[in-house]
């Protein structure tokens, strides 16, 4: 049976009916047409579907949509400014060549954001831990780590 949930999505209040089996990833991509959040493994292992829920990252592919009730969700669509200017983390990813095929990028950027929001000056080990749940098949991670470091030294 469908249930009504209310939550904040990228700063806007949303109320909608959802089925109990719906995942947060399905809610975002299929019901709200927010296609920036990617589906990789669908099993909680690759991090492509990462979003931020009340300041912490979650794998939306295995997170029940019902559980966002009363919470705040940030997707990659929600981190640029209202004029569409890219977030500093996104700009650093481009500058350091941390985006190749781009499939991991939204999840990686959100993991970096959650890390830097909590710890603005992480060391390399902390950066590696912060993105440990996000797999990248292209970059070898070095450029990603350099990009996150560059943002942290600017703040
Ligand atoms: S698609 Fe969610 S963890 Fe891989
Ligand atoms: S840039 Fe291709 S998977 Fe990370």
Question: Care to give the gist of this entry?
Answer:
This protein has 155 residues and is α+β, with helices and mostly antiparallel strands. The protein has helices at residues 24-31, 88-95, 105-118, 124-130, 142-154, and strands at 3-9, 12-18, 50-53, 56-59, 72-74.
Summarize the biggest pleated sheet: 5 strands, mixed
N-to-C series of helices and strands: EEHEEEHHHH
What's the overall geometry?
Answer: globular
Strand content: 15-25%
| Low-pLDDT residue intervals, each spanning 5 or more residues | none
- Helix count, per DSSP? 5
Task: Give helix % range.
Answer: 25-40%
> What value does the average pLDDT take?
97
Read across the widest sheet, the strand sequence of neighbours is: 2-1-5-3-4
What's the alpha carbon Rg, rounded to whole Å? Answer: 15 Å
SSE-based structural type: alpha+beta
The total beta strand count reads 5
Distance between the termini: 47 Å
Cofactors and ligands: FE2/S2 (inorganic) cluster
Task: Tell me what you see in this structure.
The protein has helices at residues 24-31, 88-95, 105-118, 124-130, 142-154, and strands at residues 3-9, 12-18, 50-53, 56-59, 72-74. The chain is of the alpha+beta class. Strands 2-1-5-3-4 form a five-stranded mixed β-sheet, covered by helices on one side. The longest helix has 14 residues, at 105-118. The radius of gyration is 15 Å and the shape is globular. The protein starts with a strand and ends with a helix. Bound molecules: FE2/S2 (inorganic) cluster (FES) (2 copies). The site of one FE2/S2 (inorganic) cluster has 12 residues, from loops.
């Amino acid at each position: 049976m469908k249930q009504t949930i209310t939550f904040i999505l990228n700063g806007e209040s949303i109320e909608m009916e959802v089925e109990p089996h719906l995942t947060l990833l399905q809610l975002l991509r299929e019901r709200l047409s927010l296609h920036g959040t990617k589906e990789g493994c669908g099993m909680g292992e690759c991090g492509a579907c990462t979003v931020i829920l009340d300041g912490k990252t979650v794998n939306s592919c295995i997170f029940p949509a019902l559980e966002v009730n009363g919470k705040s969700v940030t997707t990659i669509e929600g981190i640029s400014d209202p004029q569409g200017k890219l977030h500093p983390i996104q700009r650093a990813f481009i500058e350091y060549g941390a985006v190749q095929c781009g499939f991991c990028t939204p999840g990686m950027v959100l993991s970096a954001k959650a890390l830097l929001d909590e710890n603005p000056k992480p060391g390399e080990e902390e950066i590696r831990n912060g993105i440990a749940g996000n797999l990248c098949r292209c970059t070898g991670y070095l450029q990603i780590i350099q990009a996150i470091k560059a943002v942290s030294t600017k703040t």
